[in-house]
Amino acid sequence: MKQNILYIALALAICATLASLYASEALGWEPCVLCWYQRIFMYPLVVILAAGTLRKTRDLEYFVLPLSLMGLALSLYHSLLQYGIIPEQFSPCTSGISCTIPYHIAFNFLTIPLLSFITFAAITVCILIYRKAQT
Q1: Domain coordinates of the chain in residue numbers?
Q2: Which residues cross the membrane (predicted)?
Q3: How far is CA 121 from CA 13, 28, 31, 56, 63, in A?
Q4: Closest of 71, 81, 79, 86 to residue 121, by C-alpha
Q5: Consecutive sets of 10 residues in the chain, 135 residues long: mean pLDDT of each?
Q6: What is the CATH number of domain 2-134?
Q7: What is the pTM of this model?
């Protein structure tokens, strides 16, 4: 069970990485500053989770949780910014692509930052379950 949960977290990180690359490279969607920062927190998770899963590392949560929690907080901030809950004046995107323009993926409310939030949350939950299974 505990090893399977790592495979789930790894699959989520791989899917998120491939989806972000597909959106920017194949679809031509240029990422904003906050999207880049979310990528900075997601991409290393693929390598860390793959190495930790293959090596059956016991202290994997010390490497994964900081990245997933920072990505979770950043994607929540970005989602709140896009949904207008946080005013645009608090946006760090002063030049280039606006961080407030939502790219709707499905159902007219699922945006890239919201999907990022869900993925970071799921990875965090997987790692917490893994950590609990270690004790």
Answers
A1: 2-134
A2: 36-55, 62-85, 105-130
A3: 11, 27, 21, 22, 16
A4: 71
A5: 88 96 90 92 98 89 96 95 82 74 73 94 96 83
A6: 1.20.1550.10
A7: 0.91
